[in-house]
Amino acid sequence: MAGEGRERATDDTQMESQLGVVETDNPLGLRLVGEADLATEEQLVKAVAAVAGRREPNQDLHLDLSELSFIDCCSIRAICQVSSTFENGSKLVITPSPAVRRIVSILDLEGEPYLQMEGEAP
Amino acid sequence: MTPTSVLDQKAEGFRHEALFYGGSGAFVERITPFLQAGVDAGEPILVVLDTGKIELLRSALNGRADHIRFEDMAEVGSNPARIIPVWQAFVDEHAALGRPFRAVGEPIWPARSADELAECEQHESLLNVAFGDPPAWRLLCPYDVVSLPPAVLAEARRNHPFVDEGDGPLSSSTFRGLAGASKPFEGSALPEPPGSFVEMSFDSKELRAVRTFVAGHAARLGLGPARIEELVLAVNEVASNSVLHASGEGDVRMWRSDGVVVSEIRDTGRITDPLVGRRRPQLGQDGGFGLWLANQFCDLVQIRSAETGSVVRLHVKV
Fold it and tell me: Model confidence over B173-206: pLDDT tens digits?
């Protein structure tokens, strides 16, 4: 287990592409940087599945999406669907960017029980 | 027994009825009894009209309007493809209660542009497809014969199984039926852009370039930052459909016409679901997101589809 707050890239080559994916240990989750769309869907699905596989029972998964300048429907869907592997009460804790907030709102996901949006503007 | 009550007894499913009236006085006179009958029967009622007509009805109903839910058609239906989801939510809310309910909606008014009018007429036609089955409910669509041209009224007769032209609701002899309504995208081709336009081709690896292209030209054509972000997302989703469901590539064109920025996505795929973009998608389902999202963010969405391919035009007012 890595030390507190340490981050590591899951794949160095991907850092140069339009979507940067960094696995975080404390809290357990991912930090996404750049643009998530159809071209990065497979990369995102794999990264989310990998980090979800490291969860302890009942542990939340934290996704820092505050540096995601673009996200499409298939990507938010890929993120949300990992919650189907969660036990009752575990949450997907998302720190959104304006782009993330927009798509969560238009798809009416705010009320989803597994979703917790952090740092929402009042 | 009046024709209305005969038809009431026959109504087992959705009853879609046009009501022709002449001017605002006649509007109040003709609509008020329909609403009062619903209030008296304890039916849930949803009325979607412009705010001026809502006020007229409120004062005519004199306190009994408290039982009626009113919504502003200018908000709900500026893009007519957003109206069916509102009726659907109303139906879902009341279907389980097992008693009838009724509604009034006027999607067509004289100030509608030619493009809007065509999509409004398609919306009226698609209502018959969307709500073909029980539960039993009535939707009254008022048409102002004083201010609307005869061609619009003729189309209303084709899009409504029942029309009340002043002698009570009667079967429309020119109603086009469900078969005619279920292929809405095979109509006449859209006209070419009236002036100059910009264009780019894309494939599955170039969605990011499409977004840059759309954002840049939308700004140049006069859209503000918030609308640009929404348009970029809408175009991205429709172009993603081209990548996923068509040949994997397509073309984007953009131009400005009459204060509207138009973004067109063209591909070789075929769009066949008549209600695409009019049903709220669930996260677990495949597809159905792109055109839904486009309808929420854009002022008008035009879809045409044939053997040779599909065209989707997204309109955003400047």
Answer: 999 988 888 888 987 889 999 999 999 999 988 9
Residue B240 to chain A, least CA–CA distance (Å):
7
This complex has an ipTM of 0.84
pLDDT category at B1 given cuts 50, 70, 90 is: very low
Residue contact B281–A107, C-beta within 8 A: yes
Lowest mean pLDDT among A67-76, B37-46, B179-188: B179-188
Q: Cβ separation of B283 and A107 shorter than 8 Å?
A: yes
Indicate the pTM of the whole model: 0.89
Three-state DSSP string of chain B:
CCHHHHHHHHCCCEEEEEEEECHHHHHHHHHHHHHHHHHHCCCCEEEEECHHHHHHHHHHHCCHHHHEEEEEHHHHCCCHHHHHHHHHHHHHHHHCCCCCEEEEECCCCCCCCHHHHHHHHHHHHHHHHHCCCCCCEEEEEEEECCCCCHHHHHHHHHHCCEEECCCCEEECCCCCHHHHHCCHHHCCCCCCCCCCCEEEEEECCCHHHHHHHHHHHHHHCCCCHHHHHHHHHHHHHHHHHHHHHCCCEEEEEEEEECCEEEEEEEECCCCCCCCCCCCCCCCCCCCCHHHHHHHHHCCEEEEEEECCEEEEEEEEEC
Dump pLDDT digits (tens) for A91-100. 999 999 999 9
**B interface mutation test: which of A106, A108, A109 has the most B CBs within 10 A?**
A106
Q: Do B297 and A18 touch (CB under 8 A)?
A: no
